[in-house]
Structures are given as structure tokens and as C-alpha cells.
């Protein structure tokens, strides 16, 4: 047993520093991923875009003297219609989908540290170049976004092996949720800061400033991050022993062969894929289209748009951390099984927003109720961090990066398909009726996938993950420390 008093006396545990720096880097990842969704409002000349029903956008019009409305909007320089805007924002995912699987597998084989750092630097350089590419032509700007997607596609899966080696079983929910909640904080800071910079300094400044920050976050990453406790030069002996005895991922995971056939035949993996598809549809529809909806239907100006668009993601971040802590507590005290916990919180994350989107569809032009309910919808999505977004570590800790890359890569289709569908529905006709169809479609997809995960999802560690590890040990599972041997047998209860 680990002497917790000794561990506490050492000071701040190294794993907390690892989680904090990873959290900061995820903030940066999402700032650069989503800044275009805000800045595009300042880049496009909406007045010059042809609309077949230009008066439809005024059905929720407010008096020009009303506080917060646009009296004389500053139009951008690019004539990109709704469909072209969706191509600009969605093109990121054309590259993103390609490197998901390879990113996760490479991180398992060569480690996360230097791979992640090199990709972060690449992302920063490409971001700085985006204004010049936009002025040359929209096709070059789209190419830049595809390059961003190629680099970032490998970033998120590469984090899974790192978490598997640094997150003890008792803290897995909180550790992983904190790291990945950097996505929400990046959305918040990116939305607010990008909007303010575009409004005060011009849209080009957003890309120059945010792209240059890669030097800061990568420097912190290289100093603090190491691929496992065994190679960290500053970790205490007590914490190293604790982590090595309380994590499931094998030290020989880099040598394991991926059991592709077994993964393809696994119903829980298919349920996870289906649920991730639905989650991505909702998440990216709201991420990319919410600023456009608030501008064209609710008539908020750019500064108000960025602040109000960030509010839902702030509450989602807070809610995800609260739910993760609750999840860890109820599982640790055996109040509810891991399986029930995952499905319960995932149902909240899916069915809650589905209900909210259905209500918004019929509210009409009440901007305050619309804002409140859309904020609640986004907030409830945060419960998914204790649901499907950590399920990869439950099913296959040795192949968490590969499984995440495979699932996220395939489900990524909905990340660009959802904005494209919404743009097609609202093209040249920004009306409540058109947006109602988009919201109800999203609600139906969320509800269907919540049911799929309840019926077919699981938290049981898959036999093919255990078998691959045992095979790597030449059938001698006694080579594993006794404490880890016990974890292999009871890593994640099923019900």
C-alpha cells in the first residue's frame, strides 16, 4: 500500500502538473481551431451576399436604438455566401479526419511528448499565415484550414496514451475531464478574445497574435511533460510507485499489435462510434452556427456576439468538472457502478440538449429565452466527459489512442457535415422556420444515439485488450506487478 502521508509531504504531485500543462495546451488547440467561427463574421460582407428572401432575416428585427443591436455594422471584405462559409469552417475537418487514427497509434508507439510539441508549432505557423492566404483567394484559405486539421487531427488522440499512464484509476474521470475541458476553456477564451481583437484590431490580428502564442505553450509543454512516470526526472519515488501500481496501461503497450478484427466486431466500440457521431453533430453545429444564428436571427453585434457565444461554453466547462467529480465519488464509494454512471451522465448530456433544442425551435423571437435555453443545451453537453468521452480508456487502456483515433476519425464526418447541412438549410433564407428544421434534426440525432449507447455501450475492459497484453508478456502474466495484476482483472466493473 502507498503511504499517502509521504506522498502529500512531497508537495504538488507531478501528475497534477502534467494535467495542468496538458489543459493549457488544449486551451490553445481549441482557440486556433475555432477562431475562424467568430472572425468570419468580421471577414464577410453579409450585405453584399445575394439572398432570395432578404427580408426574412428581419422577422426578428429589433429597433435600431435597442441596446445591443447592430445599427451600422462594419461589413467585411469577402463575398462568401452561407455555403462557402460552411466550406471555410468545415474544411478544417477534411484534414482532421485523415490523421486521427495515425496520431493515436503513433503516440502509442513513439510517445506523446515530442510528437505533440512539433504539431503545436506547426499549427501556430499555419495560423499566422492564414490572413495572407485569405487575401490570395478563398481556396488558399481553405487549404490553410485543411493543413490545420491535418496537424490537429493527431493532437487529441495522442493525449490518450499519456492519460492512460498518468491517471490513476481512482482519479481517471477527474484527470481526463480536467485535461479535455481545456477544449471548453479554449472555446471560451477563443470566442471572447477573437471577437474583441477582430472588433478593435481587425480580423488579421486574431491570427497573428494567437498563432504566435504557440512558442509559449510549447515551451511549457517541453519542460513539464514526459511520456510516463518512469522517465520523468523530477517525480518522487512514492508517486512513481503509486502511478505504476494504479494505472492499467502496460509498460509494453508500444510493442502490442492492434487487434483490428476484434475491435471491428466489438458492439461497445460500435456504440461508442455512434454516440460520438451524435455528440460531434451537436457540438460542432452549435460551435460553428451559434455565432451566425445570434447575428442573423437575434441581431447581436460582433462584440456582444463573442461574449454571449462564450457564455454557454463557460457553463459547460464548469458543469463538466462538477459532473466528473461526482462521478469519481459515486464510483469510488460503490454507490453506482461505472457502467451505470457512464450511461446516466451520457443520457443527461444527450437528451438534455435535445429537449432544449426542441424548445428553442418553437420559442420564436424571444432573444432572452432563446439565449438561456441554448446556454443550458451547451452546458448539459459537458456531462459527456463522464460518459462517452472517457469510454475509450474503459474499453482498451492499452489501445486508448488508437481506439480514440479510429472512433473520432470516423465520427468526425458529422463535425463538418452538420455545419454544411445547416448552411444548406439556411442558404439565402435566414428564417426561424429554416433554423427550426436544423434544431429538430440535431435533437433527433442526439436522442437516437443516447438510446444506442444505453443499449449497446459498456465499460467492461475488452478481452482483446487483455489478450494482447498477455501475449506481449509471452503468456506469463506474473511479470506484471501484483497490484497491476489485480487491476487487470478488475479495472472497470461492468454493472
Description:
The chain is an all-alpha fold and 495 residues long. Helix content is 72%, strand content 0%. It contains 22 helices and no strands.
In short:
The chain has 495 residues and is an all-alpha fold.
Write the layout of secondary structure elements.
Layout: H1 4-10, H2 14-43, H3 82-110, H4 113-136, H5 138-153, H6 155-166, H7 172-180, H8 182-200, H9 203-212, H10 214-224, H11 237-246, H12 260-264, H13 267-296, H14 302-332, H15 338-361, H16 367-380, H17 391-395, H18 400-411, H19 413-426, H20 432-456, H21 463-472, H22 482-490
Helix pairs in contact: 2-3, 2-6, 2-7, 2-8, 2-9, 2-10, 2-13, 3-5, 3-6, 3-18, 3-19, 4-5, 4-9, 4-10, 6-18, 7-14, 8-9, 8-14, 13-14, 13-18, 13-19, 13-20, 14-15, 14-16, 15-16, 15-20, 19-20
